[in-house]
Amino acid sequence: MHAPAQEDATSRRPRGRVRALFSAIYFQVLLAIIAGIVLGHFAPEVGTVLKPLGEIFISMIKMLVAPIVFITVVLGICSANNLRKVGRVGLKAILWFQCATGIALTLGLVIANVVKPGQGINADPASLNGDSVAKYSAKEDIGTVSGFISHVVPDSAVGAFADGEILQVLFFAILFGIGMTLLGEKVEPVKALFDKIGQVFFRMLNIVMRFAPVGAFGAMAFTIATYGIGSVAQLGVLIACMYVTALVFVFVVLGGVTRISGLSIFKLIRYIRQELLIGFGTASSESVLPQLMRKLEHLGVSRSTVGLTVPAGYSFNLDGTAIYLTLASLFIAQATNTDLTVASQLGLLLLLVLTSKGGAGVAGAVLFTLAATLEAHAVIPVAGLALILGIDRFMNEARTLTNIVGNTVASIVVARWDKDLDLDRARRVLRDDDQPSMEALDLVGDSPTAGGAPTAGTVATTTS
């Protein structure tokens, strides 16, 4: 007699799973990317007018990034209650950033020398359109050591927030957090106020993230409509080199380090799949910075470590950008038949170790760094940049995804190195694919402590 009811319950399960799948933002973003590619290819005149959709979404995210980074870093430093720990974590983060950047640059250099993607193009630098690259070499301080160092300190705190300069906001937040820590209990009301303000900003972020599929759809439709799939085929070898090198770096280098830390790179990528899809669709790693920080806290990394490593990583740990810079530099040299000796390549590598820190998490910014590097190197013609302008947007997806994974792994590596990672919790979260809900990501309560379970009221206790 109860068979029909049992059948109804059984039939409801697949429908419930399908409904849950379609309500997941990462699945909606995936469908939006596919739809954008189709529309951009078959109706380019429509795709070109959809550019504002992607730009508006990224602008909304950037509007929230600076205050969220500031609050998270300040509260992270305060939660450490130990300035020695803050300095220790910062030093370890910088050491890892330099190590990862060096490996990424070297890997790109090796792949470019083995595959030689630019060989046979035989482009004459004098015949290339110099006007198309003039704007990228106009800012002489971009990518130089002195320009980068002077850019760290803002002229004013308000200006750093107004311009969305994450590195400057980070610098100001570190000073602010140190000042609050030195004052001790006197600033407890201020910390409580920041905690509440942080909850408001993360709630705003949750609202903005609902528009991620729309932004990804518009950005992808515009890209395909503007540049066309044909431009991919023309310089397909370079694009293939970029993606293959990025995959090798992620699964071999970062995968090996993640394994040493006690976790699986495959499960970690599955855990941040939503952030990867949004980053792919919008071609901006900056668009997922806030929610990536919250998910790392949910994973078991302490707030103080996340607050220092992730924002700093967006300027100091751009692994995908590093791979691109060496590949693109050697591609231009090969395409223009510019001979590079071993000494010249080593000089380029050392120069890129410094200039690669000038790249940002937004599409196109890396071209300024590349132009400044080639000018400083004074061997490879800067005009050769015109050869890759048309396909830079397609390679930017690989840069973005690699940067996101690289900063995720960096936070885990530094936390594990500093014994600030709840490894049992991280394994459990990754094993069960324990994704925090949108509502959970806006909580800014006390963070998990090193080696211990998250306390009540933390982001980690509310999951879907």
List keywords for this structure.
single chain; 464 residues; mainly alpha; 21 helices; globular; disordered C terminus
Radius of gyration: 23 Å
Q: How much of the residues is beta strand, in percent?
A: under 5%
What is the helical fraction, as a range of percent? over 70%
Q: What is the number of helical segments per DSSP (H or I, 4+ residues)?
A: 21
Summarize the structure.
This protein is an all-alpha fold and 464 residues long.
Structural commentary:
This protein is mostly helical and 464 residues long. The protein is built from 21 helices and no strands. It has helices at residues 3-23, 25-42, 44-47, 51-80, 83-115, 131-134, 145-152, 157-163, 166-183, 188-209, 212-234, 236-260, 265-271, 273-282, 289-299, 303-316, 319-335, 342-355, 365-377, 392-417, 423-431. Helix 4 packs across helix 16 (303-316) and helix 14 (273-282) runs antiparallel to helix 20 (392-417). The longest helix is centred in the first third of the chain and has 33 residues, at 83-115.
